Amino acid sequence: MTTPQVLDANSAAIIAAEDEHVAHNYHPLPVVIASGEGAWVTDVEGRRYLDLLAAYSAVNFGHSHPAILAAAREQLGRITLTSRAFHNDRLGGFAAALAELCGKDLVLPMNTGAEAVETGIKVARAWGYRVKGIPADRATVIVAGGNFHGRTTTIVGFSDDPQARDGFGPYAPGFVTVPYGDAAALEAAIDENTAAVLLEPIQGEAGVVIPPAGYLRAVREITSRHGVLMIADEIQSGLGRVGETFACDREGVVPDVYLLGKALGGGILPVSAVVANRDVLGVIRPGEHGSTFGGNPLAAAVGTRVVEMLATGEFQRRAAALGEHLETGLTELVGDGVTGIRVAGLWAGVDIDPARGTGREIAEKLLARGVLVKDTHGQTIRIAPPLVIRGTELDWAVEQLRVVLAG
Ligand SMILES: *Cc1c(COP(=O)(O)O)cnc(C)c1O
């Protein structure tokens, strides 16, 4: 496998040109990717890198998966966008397949994850007023500290990450934050105006933070007992990543509402969805919510193929087996440049000993050795390879990390 050199002139010129006209809302690693296949991407110089980020789990099935590309290509030749002003011949099949995967009745299709979250909030409020009988404009949603649910003005208002939140107020009212992983605190925060609890079953952006065993079951029990909706943001944790279809499955928990995105679009286009039973999602009436692109035939064709692939269970099994493999490798680094690891399926947060560098510095050194990872919150790197990666490739990546940490 190739070991890339320092940034060359061609890549530097492309990056400089991008910096010239692209707003600086990201701080990308200095690599210019031109193509990808499976777990590997290739830069403009022809150097290959093992992708351990998979576009934050949007590329769970790998780059250019042939079955997903085939579904997209076939649909591109027919029709791609109709708007929901009319019916299209792909949406119904997609919704049926996705509802079945989730064990629910109804699907509300959107595009991005943040839109799914916003939709979930609207559904929770409508349900709160129309079904639960909360007085007008009083509904609240309980969220967890350390959350990441997207970047809209409403969503950043209930983030406690200063980088995401500060300077973008005024913030929307109606959210109550409790510590993540503390079921008693969550129950104490519930009152008669609580419509829903919104949380990530595993917090991805926070650094793959896994709540204490039994937490999700407790949240399910508490919300059911108080007549409050449980909304699981499975946008990053769901669709195979953790070795199950959903992270909630790890505790046998079925939330009232699933929020899905990222991998649902097969790495091709943004596809998100809110999935729930009719007694909840049925509260939304024509004209109250929508999206020009939501439920478009191309998205539905791709999403249908993704659901078909997940329905076999193959990817979930791969994630579980490879995740154990990864955990074994990472465990050997604990105490030797790594201060802690958290692993759920093929998803890991790796805390870097500050004496060995920041997460960003480690990511840059891994880049130079042909491995792509992303740092989060300073000292953590997140590992979320495409689920098609091979065990030997994971071993190689862990070896590169070991070498980098050794300095
Ligand atoms: C990525 C993510 C979102 C937002 O999705 P976008 O498609 O970037 O808007 C929401 N929730 C979670 C848990 C995520 O990981």
TrEMBL record:
Pathway: Amino-acid biosynthesis; L-proline biosynthesis; L-glutamate 5-semialdehyde from L-ornithine: step 1/1
Cofactor requirement: pyridoxal 5'-phosphate
Keyword Nucleus: no
Enzyme Commission designation: 2.6.1.13
UniProt keyword list: Aminotransferase, Pyridoxal phosphate, Transferase
Residues passing through the membrane, by range: none
Superkingdom, taxonomy of origin: Bacteria
PROSITE patterns according to UniProt: AA_TRANSFER_CLASS_3
Keyword Cytoplasm: no
PANTHER family registered for this protein in UniProt: AMINOTRANSFERASE CLASS III, ORNITHINE AMINOTRANSFERASE, MITOCHONDRIAL
NCBIfam families named among the record's database cross-references: Orn_aminotrans
Family, per entry: Belongs to the class-III pyridoxal-phosphate-dependent aminotransferase family.
Designated name of the protein: ornithine aminotransferase
Gene name of this polypeptide: rocD
